[in-house]
Amino acid sequence: MISVIIPTLNCDADLAHTLAVLVPAAADGVVREVVVVDGGSTDHTGQVADAAGCVWVVSPGPRSSRIEAGVAASSRGEWLLFLSADTVLEPGWHHEVQTFIERAERAGSAERIAAAFKLRYESFGLGPRIWESWASVRTRFFGMPYGNQGLLITRRFYASLGGHRLLPELEDLDLVKRIGTRRLVTLRAAAVASGEPEHVGVATSLRRSAARFCVGMLRLPPKLVLKLHG
Fold first, then answer.
1. What residues have CB less than 8 Å from 148, skipping those under 6 apart?
2. What is the pLDDT of residues 9-25, one digit of tens each?
3. What span, in angstroms and rounded, lies between the C-alpha atoms of 1 and 71?
4. DSSP 44
């Protein structure tokens, strides 16, 4: 039913946790294959993927090109699930996903709908809770989930949208904006991100926010957006 695509780069510890929660879904037949696309790791990422029985692909380059290589290497799932290597789906996630897929296929809307998980951070404190609330607002009202919220989409719909474009660090937002707010469903199950939200300087934060706004709301040339993002 699902091919899971995970781009990686020196993330063996995080990847082990991410893969562990996919095991029950594989046992139930929901996950048919997991493709790990690596950008040239020098740690034990490859050994972790091999021990879990993943399809292993090496594709140096930006995250967007690794994702595309993963899609090309996958073949067993009609649905694609894009996950970050540091994202752990909460237990039982696949039951809701299976229900979502069955409903979409019965309604005949599988080729024009996609879904993302709620975002949760495993760290404690007020900051992560505020960030989670903001992620919920972005997803529900603007159709702009973060990359570590995961994305579930049919292979045909993904191809019709043109896949991930070569926009380093912005490829996830660019894709969901082409999907559109009305065609993006927020699942109740959560994607739990490791660590805490990234903290950068004020100037960098404003510059990156402006770049994401340009991708999400405007139609500026990709090269201009990338220069703005830095």
1. 84, 86, 87, 119, 191, 193
2. 999 999 999 999 999 99
3. 14
4. S
- Report the alpha-carbon angle 66-186-206, nearest 5: 65
Q: How high is the pLDDT of residue 142?
A: 75
Report how far Cα 74 is from the mean position of its chain's Cα atoms.
16
- Whole-angstrom distance, CA of residue 65 vs CA of residue 53: 23
Kindly state the tokens that stand for 83: 């996950």
- Count of residues for the chain? 230
DSSP string, 148-182: GG-EEEEHHHHHHHT---S-TTTHHHHHHHHH-GG
The DSSP secondary structure of 77-110, one letter per residue, reads: -SEEEE--TTEEEPTTHHHHHHHHHHHHHHHT-G
Q: What is the pLDDT of residue 213?
A: 54
From residue 46, how far is each of 12, 13, 43, 85, 213 by CA, in Å? 8, 11, 8, 13, 36
Task: Using DSSP, state whether 47 is helix, strand or coil.
Answer: helix
CA dist 216 and 144 (Å) reads 7
| Residue-level pLDDT at 135 | 80
C-alpha–C-alpha distance, residues 44 and 9, integer Å: 10
Strands 184-193 and 114-121: parallel
